[in-house]
Amino acid sequence: MIPVTSFAGKTVAVFGLGGSGLACCHALRAGGADVVAGDDDAGRIAHAAAAGFTTADLRTAPWTSFAALVLTPGVPLTHPVPHWSVLAARRAGIEVIGDIELFCRERRRHAPSAPFVAITGTNGKSTTTALIAHLMRAAGHDVQMGGNIGTAILSLEPPRLGRVHVVEMSSYQIDLCPSLDPLVGVLLNVSEDHLDRHGTLAHYAAVKERLVAGVQRGGTAIVGVDDQWCQSAADRVEHGGGRVIRISVKRPLADGVYLDHETLVRAAGGARTDIARIGGIGSLRGLHNAQNAACAAAAALALGVDFRALQDGLRSFPGLVHRMEQIGRKGQVMFINDSKATNADAAARALSSFDDIFWIAGGKPKTGGIESLREFFPRIRKAYLIGEAAADFAATLGSAVTHEISGTLDVAVAQAARDAEAAGLAGQPVVLLSPACASFDQFRNFEIRGQRFRELVMALGGIEAV
Questions:
Q1: At which of 292, 315, 338 does a domain end?
Q2: pTM of this prediction?
Q3: Is the CB of residue 38 less than 8 Å from the CB of residue 24?
Q4: Strand (E) positions, 332-402?
Q5: Cβ atoms of residues 260 and 248 within 8 Å
Q6: Please, what sign has the CA dihedral across residues 60, 61, 62, 64?
Q7: CA 179 to each of CA 33, 102, 176, 357, 376: distance values in angstroms, whole numbers, following the listed order
Q8: Backbone φ and ψ of 296, nearest 5°
Q9: Per residue in 427-461, pLDDT tens?
């Protein structure tokens, strides 16, 4: 745990008592603060009270007695309207911050030179975060990984020299971290997502940009420049005096890191250096993973990892569960769990990586549907549509892709497995769960959806686990 000493002797309101919120309560108390905890969920209130925290209905609390409101990132800060707790804090003139802001303040207080890597992007940030952590561990470093992936940041070990914190950040977390200042900041990409929480794509992109704009003096901003939003962000950060490493997997760069066939290349001052090969690494299949690998490699090099350790680390990376995860094989048919693809842009990465796809898609739809995936339709042998999005997806697929409305995941898996086996294709047909949707209509989160897919696949019989 990281004790939060910056509020010692003060009273702090914490709203939202899930994993990260409760971790905030513990960290604030360990650092000498008094905590008043609130939530709209009675069960979470009871859990916090059982842990010894003062709980209250914050709607009627004396807000002027609080030094700050620590807000869970799942609660709206700006759009569609600010949460009532945010409005109450603003009326009282107190700051509204999140758990990563608390971490940043503790790092500046106690170990300002401790390596801190922050990663964001619409897609790929979990894989890139896990890959950077893996590369640093493989090179012999003490690594703490958390944030939007896995462990709440304040539940990690404290910053200190020689310890590397690798932290995934969502746009919601960046919004709650006004003094974000990583040593290495990574912005992978920006595409349409979370507009219900940010209003416009321009605002969403501006929030993401803050992560690399805030890189501390002497640090490194790593920016994927294959979309216009990030290209503009890289230009602004560089014009502001920051050190920027541009990343492209679509074109050579005069200065930066780019993909040349299956090799990552660093260009600088007219010289070209091959830094690593990613061909044949199953966990890094596809152009999207080439971008993840390029950004992770640039981060590792910025932190002093040498080429040999970098190559060894890339080869040994196991990949992430629920992200193009190979579940098993039945004869020629491979079953791939890509449940983490909660929007069309994420699903595009999987669809671009395979041919002869029996595609399971649908769930709670995101803005824009799957129209943007039309270029991949020729790769899809048949689609099996589930959840709230099924009818709209069927209308988009039309006569271009053979499809049926399966309704639920269990039906879709059975139908897709049957058809893939019966197709008698010469190559390797793939039953791919890549929903292009949130899970919330039928599952509590994408992890549970992916685990259910795994269970259904393994129950088919004759499956060779991968």
A1: 315
A2: 0.84
A3: no
A4: 333-337, 357-362, 380-386
A5: no
A6: negative
A7: 20, 10, 9, 45, 41
A8: -65, -40
A9: 889 999 999 999 999 999 999 999 999 999 999 98
Question: Residue 250 has what DSSP assignment?
Answer: S
The CATH number assigned to the domain holding 368 equals 3.90.190.20
Question: What amino acid is encoded at 414 in this protein?
Answer: A
Contact of 291 with 256, CB cutoff 8 Å:
no
Residue at 62: amino acid letter: P
Domain count, the chain: 3
Identify whether residues 154 and 240 lie together within a single domain: yes
Burial 352-363 (b: 16+ CB within 10 A, else e): ebbebbbbbbbb
Please report whether residue 102 resides in a domain.
Answer: no
Same structural domain, 356 and 402: yes
DSSP per residue, 360-374: EEESB--TTTTGGGG
Q: Which helix (H) or strand (E) holds 277?
A: strand 271-277
Q: Rg of the Cα trace of the chain? A: 23
Domain span holding position 381: 325-465
Residues 139, 278 within the same domain: yes
Quote the CA–CA distance of 364 and 199 in Å, as a whole number: 19
At 345 the pLDDT is: 85
Do 343 and 459 belong to one domain? yes
Helix (H, G, I), strand (E, B) or coil at 462: coil
Omega into 80 within 30° of 0, i.e. cis?
A: yes
Q: What's the CA gap between 122 and 398, in Å, rounded?
A: 28
**What tens digit of pLDDT does each residue of 234-281 get?**
999 999 999 999 999 999 999 999 999 999 999 998 899 999 999 988
List 184's β-bridge partners, or say none: 117, 220
Q: What are phi and psi of 38, to 5 degrees?
A: -140, 160
32-56 b/e (C-beta count within 10 Å ≥ 16 → b): ebbbbbbbbeeebbebbeeeebebe
Torsion of CA 54, 56, 62, 67, to 10 degrees: 50
Model confidence at 195: pLDDT above 70: no
Last residue of a domain, one of 97, 132, 166: 97
* End-to-end alpha carbon distance in the chain: 35
Residues 80 and 53 in one domain: yes
- Give CA separation, 157 vs 26, 143, 320, 402, 462, in Å: 13, 9, 23, 51, 44
Same domain as 124, residue 52: no
Residue 4 lies in a domain: no
Q: Does 263 share its domain with 365?
A: no
CA distances from 337 to 278, 308, 315 (A): 22, 31, 21
